[in-house]
Amino acid sequence: MLTELRIRNLAIIEQLTLTLAPGFNVLTGETGAGKSIVVGALGLLLGERASSDAVRTGADKATVEGDFEIGTHAGIRALLDARGLESEDGMLVLKREVAATGRARAWVNGTTVTATVLAELGEALVSVHGQHASQALLDEPSQRAILDAFAEAAAEVKAVAESAHELSDARHAITALRTRTAEAERRADWLRHVAREVAEAKLVPGEDLRLEEEARRLENADELRTLASGLSDALEGDEEAILTRLGGLQRTLAQLTRIDATITPLQESFDAGYYALEALARELESYAGNVELDPARLTEVQRRRDVVFKLMRKHGPALDDVLATGARAAAELALLDGSGGDMTALEARAAAADAALRDAAARLTKRRTSAAARLAREVDALLPTLGMPDGRFTAALLPLSEPAAHGAETVEFRVTLNLGHETRPIARVASGGELSRVMLALKTILARLDHVPTLVFDEVDAGIGGKVGLQVGDAMRRVAEHHQVFAISHLPQLAARAHHHILVSKGARGGVTTADVTVLAGDARVLEVARMLGGDDESVVSRAHARELLALAAPSQSAANVGDASGRAARKR
Predict the structure, then answer these.
(1) Is the pTM of this model over 0.70?
(2) List of domains in the chain
């Protein structure tokens, strides 16, 4: 549960610490005092979108911190483990900071986290039911979710969704295969031509470059032979050849070396160069002798080049592209040849998924049918206590022609709120206040199933008052037996039912408007309830009425909880 909420520099709040208790907590105060800011701060802490507009004028940043006691809550601990986070002695501290520049940061027990992680934890820690949340009762998916939660049908809902997903995948695969097969059939003749053309050419990667090099040699064979022979003759052809002349120089250098042994390395360098030129001359002579004038081979190479060039021009630009085109054509033809077997397998997969979906949907329908009857009985039992003595509730199941991802039916909540009238969809017969009370009835029933520790009700008492207000307060007290409840309210009857009463008030500090909170008890609480009743909180009548409300709300409480005067009022009655 939420034990403490700390807010700093948010909107009109400079610094505020809100301490909450187990059971039913209520926050009251004049309009504009800052109650909605407290709810906004809580939303910010739970991962809602942050805006720099929320930062208090003149401040660099706004911060919100919340201390949550999670005890041994398995779901929250599992979520923490999955995110690599830890609690400290069963406590969780969430923090959100928004800078005036717009940058936002978040922490869990001092560890930096994303807003997404904060939101995931927030959903597990707190459920906020705003003054407009009752409109969810008008939405079929929300009605279905409420019924499934009451039916504890999570496993069946998951099975239906998974089977529907499998069926959808199989059907998409069938459609895709049919499309590819049809396209292949339309292109079959062309594909066969391409595949045959490329296959018959027996192309080899890099062949185009090798053919080009060979053709260049064959086309220039005579010139190559002449040039190589000329170089060879220049090196060692006659007395004027380079090697012959170098031979004389070699003898001169040998004489120098015999006189001065220090120039032996020069002799070695000369010898190395001489022998290299000698080897070059032999290689050039061999090359010239091996150059063939082969017109037949040249014709063959040119013909092969033409084949390769034509294929590259049609399917290129590169030879690798030609090979890839041939491979794709062969693969499409293989698909065409093997599509029959693939289609049979996919159709069998789709049939199995369809059967699994129908079976899972039937199990879900059975559970929903039983739960719908039980939910109707329990809501009917609560409606009179919420000021609707003739109210009747029905969760109707409307069959679909085919099972869908959410089951074989839609869910429609229907009510009749007046004696003698037939049940109709709740959207057509309920006012805003009635919707709020029906939602509260459902929340009361679902409270024992809901694993979220803290429930926040933001002014859901709109449109009600008098005895109904007392009844709504009693309903919230019943919810508070299973959860911590935090309600923001203008209704004195509801405020009087709370176990823990907090007042938010607006003042000024340093010439700037700010908001503060005070925990009320005794006469201070009597004065606030008297103010909420709309009378003069200083009058004897208003105070007496307030004491009466408090005494009726908690007859088992001691006089100290509602003030000595409220105890005297109870004794007078």
Answers:
(1) no
(2) 1-131+451-520 (3.40.50.300), 154-360 (no CATH), 521-573 (no CATH)
